[in-house]
Write a structure and sequence with these properties.
Shape: elongated
Strand content: under 5%
């Protein structure tokens, strides 16, 4: 699991870096921090999904369709935590927008890792057929 966390961290840093680059660029261009964060999330989502499917959790043999919608929900949960924390930091702690964005984005990573590992990209479960029929060759006469 340590190696997987490292791989998750690499992809996560790339996606987070892209998220912060887009968000901070938009903030410095005069966009609101809340809208900037939402747009940055949308841009970083695709990098995150492709990276986690093909690298972080590649050994899980996850079904791509199932993983896509589960990771979508996982990412939305992470975004909700990120966005709520951003609003809290901006309104109640009077942090500068750039600092608040960095803190809120970093704080959502643990939730996203756990949901990704144990739900979104979990190993496929194979259904085995029950042994309901036995033929005469199974039992000696």
């Amino acid at each position: 699991m340590i190696f997987q966390m490292l791989k998750f961290g690499i992809v996560g840093m790339m996606a987070t870096g892209l998220h912060l680059l887009v968000g901070l660029t938009m903030i410095s261009s005069g966009w609101s921090p809340i809208l900037s964060n939402a747009m940055a999330f949308l841009v970083a989502f695709s990098v995150s999904f492709i990276g986690h499917l093909g690298f972080s959790f590649s050994d899980h043999d996850a079904d791509i369709v199932t993983a896509a919608w589960r990771f979508g929900l996982t990412a939305l949960a992470g975004f909700a935590v990120n966005q709520a924390l951003l609003v809290l930091l901006l309104r109640h702690f009077a942090l500068r927008p750039a600092a608040a964005l960095c803190l809120s984005t970093a704080s959502a990573a643990a939730l996203t890792f756990l949901l990704s590992r144990y739900w979104a990209f979990r190993h496929r479960t194979f259904v085995t057929k029950p042994a309901t029929e036995f033929t005469s060759h199974h039992f000696p006469k």
